[in-house]
User: Which sequence fits this backbone?
């Protein structure tokens, strides 16, 4: 396992240790195959922390329960899913823990939370927003839960390797592609085709995050996350505006150019997390292909982001004291 990845888990692992042996409810973040990867990685992290988890369904009873809410990018103005999940449990739960999230707007919701809530952010801009919205709220900064994925263990999972290939082949065929075709492409464009795309005209070879369905039950979501990783793992080089494609590339050691999305979450999480990986770079807008340069030769915007991060780190170390 990569040294950076291990270090990026520390804050969450240390926090979860206090709940060892406890029973909790987990509300996964709704979404696509990237969110399925978050779901699977979170379940593994909770299991390693010896927390017994019940995955919530509609109408779940949150009274006097410890509630973990799945990480992701759902607590922003464009979506209501995580806001509704927090509203459903915040009055009755004993503890409410939102795992690392991108957070925009929702000031009224943040101001309504009390000492029972802990809000984890996955980028500095979200952290600052929450602190400004409710200075008394327990707000902390960590990294996306997908970094808790042990890629080698996940990819060799016996159940996934037994059930996943049929699902993988079928879903890729629906998009007129295959693992073999993807593996032979010099550059694969895994670009998004939804409202978070910067332009509807950006070319894509496959919107891999939408190819394998969305978050459902734990087992099906785990299979979707496995198919998502398996597809990305055969690519030589990647251009994407899908954050979790870039995170997968970071974990799989695949050269990747990350393009920004409509509300800049990619830019923020690159600066906070992905800048650590020399084979991941950042671009403001889409390109036809990844520049044919060694990964160590970074673009100017990548260098600028890393320079800016050093100043952010200094500011944050003072803000958290």
Assistant:
């Amino acid at each position: 396992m990569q040294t950076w990845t291990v270090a990026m888990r520390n804050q969450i692992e240390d926090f979860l240790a206090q709940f060892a042996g406890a029973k909790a409810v987990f509300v996964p973040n709704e979404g696509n195959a990237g969110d399925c990867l978050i779901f699977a990685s979170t379940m593994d992290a909770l299991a390693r922390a010896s927390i017994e988890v019940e995955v919530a369904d509609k109408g779940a009873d949150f009274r006097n329960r410890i509630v973990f809410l799945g990480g992701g990018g759902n607590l922003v103005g464009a979506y209501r899913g995580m806001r509704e999940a927090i509203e459903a449990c915040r009055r009755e739960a004993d503890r409410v823990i939102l795992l690392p999230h991108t957070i925009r707007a929702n000031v009224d919701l943040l101001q309504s939370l009390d000492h029972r809530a802990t809000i984890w952010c996955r980028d500095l801009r979200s952290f600052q927003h929450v602190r400004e919205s409710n200075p008394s709220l327990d707000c902390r900064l960590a990294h996306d839960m997908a970094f808790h994925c042990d890629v080698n263990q996940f990819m060799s999972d016996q159940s996934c390797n037994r059930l996943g290939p049929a699902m993988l082949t079928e879903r890729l065929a629906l998009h007129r592609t295959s693992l073999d075709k993807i593996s032979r492409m010099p550059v694969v464009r895994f670009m998004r085709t939804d409202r978070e795309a910067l332009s509807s005209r950006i070319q894509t070879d496959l919107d891999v995050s939408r190819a394998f369905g969305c978050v459902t039950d734990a087992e099906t979501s785990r299979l979707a996350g496995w198919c998502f990783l398996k597809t990305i793992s055969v690519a030589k080089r990647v251009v994407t505006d899908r954050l979790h494609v870039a995170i997968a590339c970071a974990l799989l050691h695949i050269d990747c150019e990350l393009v920004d999305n409509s509300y800049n979450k990619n830019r923020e999480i690159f600066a906070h997390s992905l800048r650590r990986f020399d084979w991941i770079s950042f671009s403001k807008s889409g390109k036809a292909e990844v520049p044919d340069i060694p990964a160590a030769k970074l673009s100017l915007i990548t260098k600028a982001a890393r320079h800016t991060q050093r100043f952010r780190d200094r500011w944050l170390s003072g803000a958290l004291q």
User: Anything to note?
Assistant: The longest strand covers residues 95-103.
